[in-house]
């Protein structure tokens, strides 16, 4: 069933947790290209996808967050965009089988329109290349995630909508201002995000990264205050990162995060998962407090 049909039936859907956290646990080194693992360490990437599905995820994202031509060119892999993205989707498709969903991950390029180091056409072409390859590899959903700039997010959504038949989701990363409002690093409000992303054609909207799960309930409520109906995805960090003895530590336990899941559902979240620091154990804890799969 198309995921939008499930959401129309008031299903609350469980997505996955962090990928970077899991890759690091399997040996990804600082400065190493994560997307190259889709070819060189395929088994490890497949194991991660399977671990999330085994924990109860119905949606698992691909290892393609930085798979755009700009970021891959940094590693000398700019000519491998299609190969690495298609492989990323094929891996998760193998783990998912026929009944669960593959979300093709598209992250920011690291380029800024205002600084003149990219054009709208270059952005569009980069996102189009990624989206087409992800769909070819078996993605059902394109998730444009961790965005902070409204123009970049909108162009990524348009590229996915115009060049694939996938459901398209977008998430932006918000922080609370001293005035108690939510804004992205580039100053975008939830209302501006909703208006722009709906105009671009997104099917699902939401927020990921930047906040632990308690703060994410506030973000969810802020989004819902402007739009009561559009499907919403929320993926919280396992708290703020702490750097101890050269390691990044996230302190929100699976049980602590799971205790906020009912509140997230009440706040209007339709798809719930985790971001940085979360693991299959977090997702397993979420599954225990969510409505049964047959609802």
Short description:
With 295 residues, the chain is α/β, with parallel strands linked by helices. The chain has a single domain (3-289), classed as Alpha-Beta Barrel (TIM Barrel). The protein has helices at residues 3-8, 20-25, 37-40, 42-55, 69-74, 81-96, 120-137, 150-163, 190-200, 213-226, 254-258, 261-266, 280-289; strands spanning 13-14, 59-61, 101-106, 141-147, 167-172, 175-176, 182-183, 204-208, 232-236, 242-244, 247-249, 271-274.
Description:
A hairpin with a 2-residue loop joins strand 10 and strand 11. This protein starts with a helix and ends in a 6-residue tail after the last helix. The chain is 44% helix and 16% strand. Helix 4 (42-55) runs parallel beside helix 6 (81-96), helix 6 runs parallel beside helix 7 and helix 7 (120-137) crosses helix 8. It has a single domain, classed as Alpha-Beta Barrel (TIM Barrel). It has an eight-stranded parallel sheet with strand order 1-12-9-8-5-4-3-2. Strands 6-7 form a two-stranded antiparallel sheet. Strands 10-11 form a two-stranded antiparallel ribbon. The longest helix is centred in the middle third of the chain and has 18 residues, at 120-137. By secondary structure, it is an alpha/beta fold.
